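Issue 218. Parser rejects a valid record. Input:
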Amino acid sequence: QVQLVESGGGLVQAGGSLRLSCAASGSTFSINAMGWYRQAPGKQRELVAIITTGGTTNYADSVKGRFTISRDSARNTVFLQMNSLNAEDTAVYYCYGRKMAREYWGRGTQVTVSS
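Output the parser choked on:
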């Protein structure tokens, strides 16, 4: 089993920045990707950014150029630096991990951007 714990959410003004962190624990060996999804009220959960153990990244078009995903493999931690935030970024952000064919989720952290 893999446990994922997010931190770093909060309230920020439009144009501001936040940095999310997600620490993985448990059976972290062979985690092959970690990333972030988000879900806004009334909307489906969507991919924000993902990074593989090889360092390959993928971003949603809506966050390209504003968000940066990175990882600290030694600490099994993934980060999401979010800049130039706007109201459309308001959502619950969920940490995601994939190990073999299994997927794992954190409980989520709220990000609220005030306009």
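Fixed in the parser; the record now loads. The mean pLDDT is 95.
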